[in-house]
């Protein structure tokens, strides 16, 4: 009986073995490259998540502190505005001193801080900017507070 399958001999056999070795190396390199790319993607995702969470917490905490000192800021910054008004010869702003508008801005920010924190908590803008959260999050239009208690 003769062989049904013709196996390569000589130079053809050497090139065939080289092709098999190259294919094995290519598959190993491809799997290593996939692992490395997944690791890099995971590290970058963790960095983006950390940055977004840090920005979220820092803004919410600073606005909560401003909101808690709303009454104090009203009286203290109001007193500073009056002192600054008389210091600037009965003007609110001078070309080198913008303290009064900054004081008023801080007070307005402290009044609106609670609503801004609620807005930040609902919409998660820093997480969306960093592409950590999908942009298709359903936004709650009506608050059903009774569902929390039943």
From TrEMBL:
Membrane-spanning segments: 39-59, 71-88, 100-120
Keyword annotations from UniProtKB, A to Z: Membrane, Plasmid, Transmembrane, Transmembrane helix
Protein's recorded name: Uncharacterized protein
Organism: Rickettsia asembonensis
